[in-house]
Design brief:
Elements: H1 22-31, H2 41-54, E1 58-64, E2 68-75, E3 82-84, E4 100-102, H3 109-112, H4 115-118, E5 125-132, E6 138-146, H5 154-200, E7 204-209, E8 214-217, H6 220-225, H7 238-242, H8 245-260, E9 265-273, E10 279-290, E11 296-305, H9 307-360, H10 369-394, E12 402-404, H11 406-421, E13 426-431, E14 437-439, H12 441-457, E15 468-475, E16 481-487, H13 517-527, E17 531-537, E18 541-548, E19 572-576, H14 580-590, E20 595-599, H15 602-610, E21 617-621, H16 629-639, E22 647-651, H17 657-665, E23 670-672, H18 677-690
Parallel strand pairs: 13-15, 19-20, 19-21, 21-22, 22-23
Antiparallel strand pairs: 1-2, 1-6, 2-3, 4-5, 5-6, 7-8, 7-11, 9-10, 10-11, 12-14, 15-16, 16-18, 17-18
Helix pairs in contact: 2-5, 9-10, 9-11, 10-11, 11-12, 12-13
Length: 691
């Protein structure tokens, strides 16, 4: 094998031209991160071997940088680390890909004047093999040199080329080692961070290796769910077994679709079983890591316990409602005391007239007794309605949804807020017929109470004749139910409008507002699938708008006052209540129409039922001292299970958690105290008609 006996193109005393791929070549060179690094035995062995194979005192691994030739390894040139590219023999090696051999530099007039020939080290011989990467970029050379002319054999030239290939292989291996080292360091750093996060977070952290099926958990899984560490399994089947049966299919199918559908993240909210058998509502989120082919290899995730957050949300909502109740307390007391004043006065008057009539033998009809009693009855009815509205608003939070008449919810709020309105503005109701909505009446009442109080507080006291609060119901173009609360107050400045719905933001002075009202209203409406909007203009007022979808099938609202309906037949009715006065009132109301059996102890009622006598309806108080209505229901269900659901519960308010839970899980009809005789007769009639 003979090497070309010619210098590379271009005069040696002029700067060399650059190759056309110079930019790409330099990027390839720097990608190896080898320039200006310390000597390495693997490269020094190659230069030593090159010198021995070719019989030369000098051997170099030269890398051609932008303006220099840097020596990665050198034998016989200990005082040089780099040299200018335009004067180095190797600097021109990047212009052609083959061997470059100069057997005698003095035989070439140009080379004879070269600094390395004309002065130290007086080179007479040079041979270089290019370092060519797998992608074809020339990085430099493996070269040998001597101070006397020399001729290399074909075997020596092939050996020089082989050594050049070994240098490139070493560079590739070196780069791979660097990448691997960095990956290991990053993995260690990542693992350390992951470990810190696992210990620092309040969430459950899990790591699922899809290749092995192994799932590891941090210690929070034991703390939040109550499972001892030895019971926390690492197989992939443990987690699905804890998901609530009603959620399991949805959650596992969503997880499967995310993992095998190419997604990078997955999340779901569901119920997870604790060790004690109860369920925690959790938010589970996972990041899906994929390999080079896109196949999932690992999933890292966190499980956040939402139970405390839900409890906090309920507590905030309750706090806001209680703040509203505190604001209304004086007004509500005023509204109750007014009718009570004339109830008491008229009842006193009626008593005195009856006593006088009895003494003077004057018939009561001849005096004002009937009118006084009617007025007393009207006053008592007003008290009953006010208390009913208060109960509707302040009952504990629950998730029960039902068909709700929006106008009824607004009227409830107006009743409670009336004392805040009356001294500030005229109230105008513009109710267009609208269908019922699917909602929670107490929560809607809270929304409108907040909006109406805010509207009132936007108007100064003492100007009721000049200001107005309008409440409007209508349908929009989509057929959705719209309720608006408009005021003629000061309006909301433009710079404050973006913050109106933020939690804890308020323009009221300290101590006069929590800043939670509108934020909670927004949350209630959006959770019902509705929209919460507002418009405002400084100096002209503000409109808040609640938009809700109507029921798919609307029940026609009955606006006529219901008339008493006489029972189709005489019924045998049992009434169980520890308050004898309540039993007396039922006897006076129903005694002429039905057969009543009255019991002030539920045990006595159970003893009568044991006799097997027929009966049609049982009215039972819910809260009694010796035996509660819940316990009475359980006894009836044990003895005659087919009729336990026919008990009608009479309650003045389910004020314990057990009572609320009981009423939420049974189908039985309930009657609120104080009950209206008309409603009582209608309920009996409907029950008898249904049999």
């Amino acid at each position: 094998m003979a090497a070309p006996e010619s210098p590379p193109p271009g005069p040696y005393l002029e700067p060399p031209t650059l190759p056309r791929n110079e930019k790409e070549r330099l990027e390839a060179l720097r990608s190896y991160e080898v320039l200006d690094t310390a000597p390495e035995p693997s490269f020094d062995d190659i230069t030593l071997l090159a010198a021995q194979l070719c019989g030369t005192p000098i051997a170099l691994i030269a890398l051609v940088d932008a303006e220099r030739v840097w020596l990665k390894s050198r034998t016989g040139v200990e005082d040089r680390v780099q040299m200018p590219r335009d004067t180095a023999f190797c600097g021109r090696s990047v212009l052609h890909p083959g061997l470059h051999v100069v057997t005698d530099t003095l035989a070439n007039p140009q080379l004879a004047q070269h600094p390395l020939v004309a002065s130290e080290p007086h080179l007479r011989f040079y041979a270089g093999a290019p370092l060519i990467t797998p992608k074809g970029a020339t990085l430099g050379t493996v070269c040998v040199a001597d101070v006397v002319p020399r001729q290399l054999s074909p075997a020596q030239l092939r050996s020089l080329e082989a050594l050049a290939r070994q240098v490139v292989s070493q560079l590739e291996l070196r780069r791979m080692n660097l990448v691997q080292t960095r990956l290991i360091e990053e993995l260690q750093t990542s693992s350390e961070r992951f470990s810190v996060i696992q210990h620092a977070t309040d969430d459950i952290v899990w790591d699922w290796d899809l290749a092995t099926g192994r799932v590891t958990w941090n210690e929070r899984v034991s703390e939040l769910l109550g499972y001892p560490p030895q019971d926390v399994r690492q197989d992939s089947g443990w987690w699905p077994s804890l998901v609530h049966p009603d959620d399991r299919e949805r959650v596992t199918e969503g997880f499967r679709r995310a993992v095998h559908g190419g997604k990078s993240v997955w999340s779901d909210e569901y119920r997870l079983r604790r060790a004690n058998g109860t369920y925690a509502r959790v938010l589970d989120r996972g990041a899906i890591l994929r390999g080079s082919t896109g196949a999932p290899v690992r999933i890292l995730g966190t499980v956040m316990d939402m139970s405390e957050r839900e409890e906090m949300r309920s507590r905030l909502a309750l706090a806001d409602r209680m703040a509203s109740v505190g604001t209304l307390a004086a007004g509500v007391a005023h509204e109750i005391n007014n009718p009570l004043a004339y109830v008491i006065a008229n009842l006193d008057y009626a008593r005195q007239e009856v006593e006088a009539a009895a003494t003077a033998q004057v018939p009561p009809e001849a005096v004002e007794l009937p009118r006084a009693l009617r007025e007393a009855r009207e006053g008592a009815e007003r008290v009953r309605l006010i208390v009913k509205d208060l109960k509707t608003f302040s009952r504990p939070d629950d998730a029960r949804l039902e068909a709700v008449d929006l106008r009824r919810a607004i009227d409830t709020a107006v009743t409670l807020a009336w004392n805040e309105i009356r001294h500030r503005a005229r109230l105008v109701k513009l109710y267009e017929p609208v269908p019922e909505v699917w909602a929670n009446e107490a929560r809607l009442g809270q929304v409108f109470l907040n909006l109406i109080i805010n509207a009132a507080h936007a108007i100064p006291e003492g100007s009721a004749d000049r200001n107005e609060i309008r409440v409007i119901t209508r349908l929009d173009s989509r057929g959705h139910v719209v309720a608006e609360v408009q005021d003629t107050g000061a309006g909301i400045p433009e710079d404050l409008r973006p913050r109106v719905l933020e939690p804890f933001f308020t323009t009221k002075p300290p101590g006069e507002g929590t800043g939670l009202g509108l934020s909670i209203c927004h949350g209630i409406v959006t959770r019902l699938g509705g929209e919460f909007q507002f418009d405002s203009e400084v100096g002209r007022g503000t409109t808040f708008r609640v938009v809700l979808p109507p029921l798919a099938q609307v029940r026609t609202a009955q606006s006529e006052e219901k008339k008493p309906v006489k029972a189709a037949s005489r019924a045998r009715i049992l009434a169980v209540d520890d308050e004898q006065l309540v039993l007396n009132a039922m006897r006076r109301t129903l005694g002429s129409e039905h057969e009543l059996l009255l019991f002030n102890r539920p045990q006595a009622a159970l003893a009568w039922l044991e006799q097997g006598e027929p009966w049609d309806i049982i009215f039972c108080d819910l809260m009694m001292p010796e035996m509660t209505g819940m316990e009475f229901h359980a006894e009836v269900k044990r003895r005659m299970p087919e009729r336990a659901d026919e008990i009608i519960f009479v309650t003045g308010g389910a004020f314990t958690a057990a009572a609320r839970d009981f009423l939420g899980h049974i189908p039985n009809t309930r009657l609120e105290k104080p009950f209206n005789p008309v409603e009582l007769r209608q309920l009996i009639h409907a029950r008898l008609q249904a049999r």
